[in-house]
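Design job #97: recover the sequence.
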């Protein structure tokens, strides 16, 4: 997992994917 204090890029990417799915739906 990411080191302490590092942004979790994977979680951000997953959120963006979910947002795009919601927009397209």
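Job complete. Output follows.
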């Amino acid at each position: 997992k990411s080191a302490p204090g590092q942004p979790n890029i994977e979680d951000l990417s997953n959120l963006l994917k979910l947002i795009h799915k919601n927009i397209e739906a």
